[in-house]
Amino acid sequence: MSTLLVASILVALVAAVCFMLVHLDNKQKRKAMNHLLDQFSQAGSLLQFTFSSQEILKDAILGLDGARRKLVVVKRSSENVYNTLVIDLFAVNRCSVKKQYGTINSGELKTRKPEQYLEEIVLHFEVAYKEPVEIVFYKHFDNHLTEIAELEAKAKQWETILSKMIAPLKKTA
Description:
The chain has 173 residues and is an alpha+beta fold. The protein has one domain (2-172). Helix content is 41%, strand content 31%. The chain is built from two helices and seven strands, in the order αβββββββα. The chain has a four-stranded antiparallel sheet with strand order 1-2-3-4, covered by helices on one side. A three-stranded antiparallel sheet has the order 5-6-7, covered by helices on one side.
């Protein structure tokens, strides 16, 4: 009887420690997301933008000011370092979704799916007179394979929205 009691106490103790670690991790993620949202809000206020569309990613937030044709991206690059990027859609020549794969050795596709080699899904902007700009939607080390379809759909939705805003500008120019 005493071994059963000891085993029960050990299981309860391990469960409590696991619960506490999960709780602390979730608390840290919420805190980081709140900081990111605050930075995004401050950037929008400072620039006096009105966002008609927004997207929250793991370490970035996108906001579109459709009236001004500007896309604002606030990205967390480290714990307390945030970068704000403003993309002027008047200067964008093309917007597309790009998938970047890792090395696939000969014959490996017979046993593994292409998604297992996917490293990134990015929204790629070709900007006039500047280097291309990329916004990462999926990154192999930061996201799970099960998130690929959802994040690719989000990236394609943004590609559609932004391409429609860019196309009329290029036709009249």
